[in-house]
Design brief:
Elements lengths: L1 E5 L2 E2 L2 H14 L5 E4 L5 H7 L24 H17 L1
Parallel strand pairs: 1-3
Antiparallel strand pairs: 1-2
Helix pairs in contact: 1-3
Protein name: Peptidase M42
Keywords: Hydrolase, Metal-binding
GO molecular function, one term: hydrolase activity
Amino acid sequence: MLLSQDGYGIYDEQLNQELRIAAEKAGIPLQLAIISGFGSDASIAMKFGHIAKPACLGFPTQNTHGYEIAHLGAIANCLSILEAYCQVI
């Protein structure tokens, strides 16, 4: 899952495009999302001027703070996308 926007701001479109291309090269379908009731570390850092180009690539979860439930394949897909991205840059 790649966020386009959350409750704290809009993620960098160029960086998101690069991550979408990396996902295509890895053969992994990527779900795009906007989540209004959420803020990632990246978007909060952007809000306070600590980073210029935020992105948020993640995997769907349930119960995100006490314990998390996630499909292991989704975690592996995130790693594959990041690996493909690192090969491009």
